[in-house]
Amino acid sequence: MNHKYYMPKLILGFVGQMASGKGTAVSYLKEKYGASTYRFSGMLTDVLNRLYLPNDREHLQKLSQSLRETFGEETLAKVMAEDVKNDTNNVIAIDGIRRPGDVAHLKNVPGFILVHISADIEKRFERLSKRGEKTDDLSKTFEQFKQEHNNEAEIKIEEVAKDAIGYINNNGGISELYKQLDKLVDKFT
Q1: Pick from 13, 8, 184: nearest CA to 112
Q2: First to last CA, the chain
Q3: Domain locations in the chain?
Q4: In the CATH hierarchy, which fold is given to the domain comprising 6-188?
Q5: Do residues 115 and 35 touch, judged by C-beta distance below 8 A?
């Protein structure tokens, strides 16, 4: 293999509060760098869809908690680590790291970088209200949004973010986010 063209695998795992820009960051990396993309909630959504249950935050959280209680705290992390290890793409982006257990196995995969992406709560609520990603997003009030920050999954995010190597402040516009992502890729490749 000609080393001039060899690029080691870069696995960027994004941790951040609801609507901080994780999904937008992952989409950009897919579009610009051809990144393979993964979401922790993706495997949960697959199960909810198969069971014909709503794809809302309540069901996602209940299913996640149930799987972790039944099969072990790191069950989803093991699946994710195996998925990215087996992926032959040079750039991989993971959306939705939420718990310390989520990174327990990923941090042992060569090329893994934990990235904390953040934005102010008002900015995040505005984004959430516009996107309607989950079935209950469009009807959510700001008070409900603030209350969800007390959920177990949201509280763990700040704990996980303390171990991040990369950091993105996503209070600016989309072009500013893209510039920060390009810098991040340049820094770690």
Answers
A1: 13
A2: 17
A3: 6-188
A4: Rossmann fold (3.40.50)
A5: no
In 3D, which of 115, 173, 122 has the Cα closest to residue 19?
122
Cα–Cα distance, 22 to 97 (Å, whole number) = 9
Can you tell me the distance from the alpha carbon of 145 to that of 130, in angstroms, rounded to the nearest whole number? 13
Please give the angle made by the CA atoms of 148, 151 and 131, to the nearest 5 degrees: 40
> CA nearest 94: which of 154, 28, 11, 183?
11
Over residues 59-96, the pLDDT tens digits come to 998 999 999 899 998 899 999 999 999 999 999 999 98
Question: What is the DSSP code (8-state) at residue 31?
Answer: H
pLDDT of residue 125: 85
Question: In this predicted model, what pLDDT tens digit does every residue of 163-172 receive, in sequence order?
Answer: 999 999 999 9
pLDDT given at position 11: 97
CA dist., res. 100 & res. 155, Å (int): 11
CB 102 within 8 A of CB 164: no
pLDDT in tens, 109-136: 999 999 999 999 889 888 887 776 555 5
